[in-house]
Amino acid sequence: MTVNAESSTSTASSWRDLPAAQQPEYPDSEALREVTADLAGYPPLVFAGECDQLRDRLGAVARGEAFLLQGGDCAEAFDQVSAEHIRAKLKTLLQMSAVLTYAAAVPVVKVGRIAGQYSKPRSKATEVRDGVELPSYRGDSVNAPAFTAEARTPDPERLRRMYHSSAATLNLVRGFTTGGYADLRQVHAWNQDFVRTSASGQRYEALAREIDRALSFMKACGADPAEFHSVEFYASHEALLLDYEAALTRVDSRTGSLYDVSAHMIWIGERTRQLDGAHIEFASRVRNPVGVKLGPTTTPEEALAYIDRLDPDREPGRLTFITRYGAGKIRDLLPELVEKVTASGARPVWVCDPMHGNTFEAASGHKTRRFDDVLDEVKGFFEVHKALGTHPGGIHVELTGDDVTECVGGGDEIFVDDLHQRYETACDPRLNRSQSLDLAFLVAEMYRDQ
Ligand SMILES: O=C[C@H](O)[C@H](O)COP(=O)(O)O
Ligand SMILES: C=C(OP(=O)(O)O)C(=O)O
């Protein structure tokens, strides 16, 4: 702690005086106090300097010099913290990034929805089955999915598991990204299990051969920079559970500023972005790069108010607006927002989340999304930015490296009748690996055409 510690501590807890939406109702507040006191003493999961570095990288995105790829699970689950699952997700993001970097010739800032994405806001506080009403499942950090009173009761001990699961995941991600696995010469290896079974895998393989040739050429010319041998990869999640995020908020000894050291980047969700609420207040107090999800009801005035609250110094890279309008609305609603924000002189990073505005329930009862709607929203996003001369800064997607059947469509088409085969998400439907690669190729084309 520094000399500023006392005032920083009160700054860090200013959110406590405000209404906080979507918080679990813990039956035992003393147990919550004990867990958060312990968490406050645990080592940070990320270093504040890394958050600054990501802010710089996002600054390049805001200036139109780079593209953000942010993706990962809708909800991570404790029982999926395994080398296999983490590697599959990372591999998918690395492949998407290789496609975007090579095919669109743009530096890609890679940020996972990973190592902390354990909490979910819900539309309804309770769920009713056969006349029985229980609290909704809110992610593994809060309760368990099984439909029993015991499983659905919020348990603060789960926050401790969230911390340890995040630490284990981040540790392996750091190992993979700096220890050789993410070396660009591995572009084929990431695809090995995939190339024979999927059209997108084959398309990727052709691109990987071109990358190989380019690498050999550069090496022959004497260029073999360190950037080819490891990647910068950052972790992000929705800052939903403020007791957890506050316990992981520390004063940076270098600068005296507060950082939420649970992740490099945090975002505030569509359901918790009230301007007079606790989440925006919390985000305004930390120096991490922050995102705000903006749905179709967002007014330009609200967007300008977020800028004043979260980015008063107009620092490129500090604030990311993640729009999630739905394919049917983006072309009508986004232009006015971007126009007014741009006219104000602010330069947030503009990112498209083409998932959350395009969810519907199939006749089978599965929540799903059509790949074509996802694609159409991204297209609309590019069209709007092209028309206004602003930078389409990136995409934010829910995806997995596993061959799940949760979203319909894509090159290796999933039909509505296939959904039951591998529907494994803990909450919302994710793109599988093939659909994710399809999306990367199509986004690269859109970016090039821009
Ligand atoms: O991921 C986003 C939300 O948590 C999710 O869409 C909420 O889902 P629900 O409408 O089923 O509660
Ligand atoms: C809940 C999420 O999204 P939104 O806040 O946009 O609904 C999410 O990204 O997990």
From TrEMBL:
Pathway: Metabolic intermediate biosynthesis; chorismate biosynthesis; chorismate from D-erythrose 4-phosphate and phosphoenolpyruvate: step 1/7. It catalyses: D-erythrose 4-phosphate + phosphoenolpyruvate + H2O = 7-phospho-2-dehydro-3-deoxy-D-arabino-heptonate + phosphate. Phosphoenolpyruvate binds at R113, E270, R271, K293, R324. Its EC number is 2.5.1.54. It comes from Streptomyces alkaliphilus. GO terms for biological process: amino acid biosynthetic process; aromatic amino acid family biosynthetic process; chorismate biosynthetic process. Residues 1-14 have a biased composition (Polar residues). Binds 1 divalent cation per subunit. The enzyme is active with manganese, cobalt or cadmium ions. Belongs to the class-II DAHP synthase family. One of its GO terms (molecular function) is 3-deoxy-7-phosphoheptulonate synthase activity. This is Phospho-2-dehydro-3-deoxyheptonate aldolase. Residues 1-27 are annotated as: Disordered. Keywords: Amino-acid biosynthesis, Aromatic amino acid biosynthesis, Cadmium, Cobalt, Manganese, Transferase. Its cofactor is Mn(2+); Co(2+); Cd(2+). The keyword Chaperone does not apply. Mn(2+) binds at C74, H356, E398, D428.
